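Design a sequence for this backbone.
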């Protein structure tokens, strides 16, 4: 159950998320810091970091460090949730695309979908069959 540190805007997902992990630099309203980018989609990204500096509705600058190069992009914070140990925070970001970022990110997503970006650390989920 979500506590007071959790805020989430309920909207259905429109696009497929890619379970990847890569470094992200965040330029927030009060300070800059590094995070781990996860769950990349054309419209946004989930990041995880160890400090608690972002709140829903903050507009931030990002540098995505991908194997094919860096992408500078602006995003709005849509939700934030602290992890159960209260040491890290997951944050959902919605990209504010320019024509250039729209084109570059589209190329990266197409490459991910075709298996062309194997250098990005992919997370895999193991499903165990409990039936004997």
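Sequence:
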């Amino acid at each position: 159950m979500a506590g007071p540190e959790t805020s989430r805007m309920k909207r259905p997902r429109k696009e497929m998320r890619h379970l990847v992990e890569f470094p992200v630099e965040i330029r927030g309203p009060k300070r800059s810091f590094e995070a781990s980018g996860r769950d990349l989609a054309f419209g946004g990204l989930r990041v995880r970091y160890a400090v608690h500096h972002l709140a829903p509705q903050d507009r931030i600058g990002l540098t995505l460090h991908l194997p094919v190069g860096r992408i500078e992009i602006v995003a709005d914070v849509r939700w934030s949730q602290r992890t159960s140990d209260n040491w890290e925070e997951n944050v959902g970001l919605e990209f504010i695309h320019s024509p250039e970022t729209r084109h570059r990110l589209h190329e990266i997503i197409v490459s991910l979908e075709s298996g062309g970006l194997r250098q990005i650390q992919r997370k895999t989920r193991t499903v165990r069959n409990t039936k004997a």
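The first helix runs from residue 99 to 113.
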